[in-house]
Amino acid sequence: MKVLIKAIVSFFVFIVDVVYGNRSYARFYMLETIARVFYFSYLSVLHFYETLGYWRKADLLKVHFAQTWNELHHLLIMESLGAIASGLIASSLNTLL
Description:
By secondary structure, this protein is mostly helical.
């Protein structure tokens, strides 16, 4: 199983290397965009708990929202540094996610 996981990760690392080459800002922007999917998923679960009446989880909701806000600012910084030089890359990321 570990060999399979290593092969899958190596494949995706190769794809990212081919697509982004030496453009480290664009690579980081893409990884941050994909990482936000999991933040939003966890935030949805915390909202669901709050809807069911588990109010003790509300503090987790506030902390997680702050973490999501931090990720958003990472993306804004990367955009200002020129991470998205190609409209094709930006539209593919938005379509993908």
